[in-house]
Amino acid sequence: MKKFGLSLVAMSSIVFMAACGGNEGNTGGNTDNANAASNNEANAEENNEANANAEANENADNAEAAEDISGSVSIDGSGTVYPLMSRIAEDYMTNVNSEVSVEVSRAGTSAGMQRYVQGETDFSNASREVKDEELEEMEANGIDSMEFPVALDGMTIVIHPENDWATEMTVEEVESIFISGAVNDDDVVMWSDINADWPEEEINTYGPNENHGTYEFFVDELLDEQPLKEGTNLQQEYPTLVELVNDDENGIGFFGFGYYEANTDNLGVVSIDFGEGNITPALDNIDLEGDYAPYTRQVFTNLNLDSARENPAVKDFATHVFDVADELAADAGFAPLPEDELEEYKAEVEAIN
């Protein structure tokens, strides 16, 4: 951008001088103008070269500074956030500093937070906001922490790829399938109970278990804390959920958009009618104010500030998170946060001392 700005200034100077020379109406004036234009162009080229050299030197200084940092960074928590954070970690170790080892695990939001509040990890990824009781545990254990949004995720309702009848549902129909007792007291729910035109086959429900923030977001926020249908198959691992729904023609499950997008050949997706027509989740509509807003949430990482103060590798990696989160979000099935918001979070990390 700096080079582009300087080029515009140089060209404006050339045009202005040429116009003034035309009013002179003599050969000497034209020669002077030509010389002036040539000098301006030469000066612009020198400025561009100087800026390029300065930028190269700055990059070299940054690279040299990064090379002086070594050690390890530990991250646990959300299985939903895992694909994004693991990509960021790989990018950091490959392109920024190979002397730092960044280990990313995926115990689940709640399980990961239990490690974090005990001071066992430097970061804890979460697919929901930190809870009051977790904040209390941090305070009791002397953990100084800061919560940062890193991207946007869309809760996605998935079905068997050959299910061609339940590809569109209202929010109320989704709730009827998943809420205990919403249809029948024994929680045996048929597709035909939801829509008379659908098969008279029992619906089997799937989702992540209570270790995951996705479970908490779905039950606490979307189902308004009403209990899940008895017999819902809850799993720790998301790849297992993908496999289970793929193997069950009458299966329906819920999890983050990224795991659906990575498995579109193995899963079908439900378009949700929030009241103004059916919306199929996609990166361009997963937004807190967009068409898919009712099923959109922020996902987070929590940073141990003492770790960032004491371990340069932790702070350096934290700044890198906000350098590349917007670029790598889509690759992991997330919608990026606004660039200015990420810059604000980066500045907050850089100010840690």
Automatic annotation (TrEMBL):
Superkingdom per UniProt: Bacteria
Ranges where the record places region Disordered: 29-72
Signal sequence bounds: 1-18
Pfam families tied to this protein: PBP_like_2
Keyword flag Transferase: no
Predominant subcellular localization, coarse grouping: membrane
Keyword entries, A-Z: Lipoprotein, Palmitate, Phosphate transport, Signal, Transport
PBP domain mapped to chain residues: 63-321
GO biological process, one term: phosphate ion transport
Compartment list: Cell membrane
SUPFAM superfamilies membership: Periplasmic binding protein-like II
Keyword Transport: yes
Recorded topology in the membrane: Lipid-anchor
Residue ranges, compositional bias (Low complexity): 29-42, 49-72
A GO CC annotation given for this chain: plasma membrane
Subunit structure: The complex is composed of two ATP-binding proteins (PstB), two transmembrane proteins (PstC and PstA) and a solute-binding protein (PstS).
Function: Part of the ABC transporter complex PstSACB involved in phosphate import.
Listed name of the protein: Phosphate ABC transporter substrate-binding protein, PhoT family (TC 3.A.1.7.1)
Organism from which the protein derives: Alkalicoccus daliensis
